Structure prediction request, 159 residues.
Amino acid sequence: MTTRFEIREFRPEDLDTVALINRACLPENYSPSFFLEHYYENPKIFLVAEAEGKVVGYNMCRIEFGVSNVRTAFAKKGHVISVAVMPEYRGLGIGKALMERGLAGVKEGGAAEIYLEVRVSNTIAVGLYKKLGFKINRVSDAYYRDGENAYVMVKDFSI
Ligand SMILES: CC(C)(COP(=O)(O)OP(=O)(O)OC[C@H]1O[C@@H](n2cnc3c(N)ncnc32)[C@H](O)[C@@H]1OP(=O)(O)O)[C@@H](O)C(=O)NCCC(=O)NCCS
Prediction:
């Protein structure tokens, strides 16, 4: 039997669950106010996945202004801050759906590109991002607190 899931925008009442998923899935953990700031600033691209009546994953994106990762210009850029799916709900297409909805929202928000950082050892996430059209742009040395390098991966919406 396939597990049905729905992607929807984050709501403040999801905060505790999203923080719990974040702590269960990633070593990079954020304060409640960090999540809420993103929600207030970018409500359309802070997404959650609901399955079996509960929130089981999230994708928190934002839109930034800065130097483009793909051309010599100042640009509106999407940034995937954090994405995670609870272990027992992985491999069902939830991560991909969360990412696709995030990409669409960032594009609608006027960004021409989107980027993210991912641990070089995180082959599953890197594989997912490549499937979605992200390319490795550069390596950021010792990006993570434990010293691991990050790939900066970028998707250019114009190609
Ligand atoms: C990365 C993550 C969000 C993917 O979520 P998910 O719901 O399992 O992803 P999906 O089921 O949509 O799978 C998408 C793709 O990921 C890859 N993938 C998923 N599970 C995999 C596995 N066990 N082995 C290899 N590749 C896998 C595949 O490329 C898959 O595409 P396919 O189904 O077309 O083959 C999830 O593994 C996770 O929460 N990991 C811990 C947190 C994390 O690393 N976040 C990213 C930080 S940058």
User: Anything to note?
Assistant: Strands lie at 5-9, 46-51, 54-67, 74-85, 113-119, 135-140, 150-156. The helical segments are 15-25, 32-41, 94-108, 123-131.
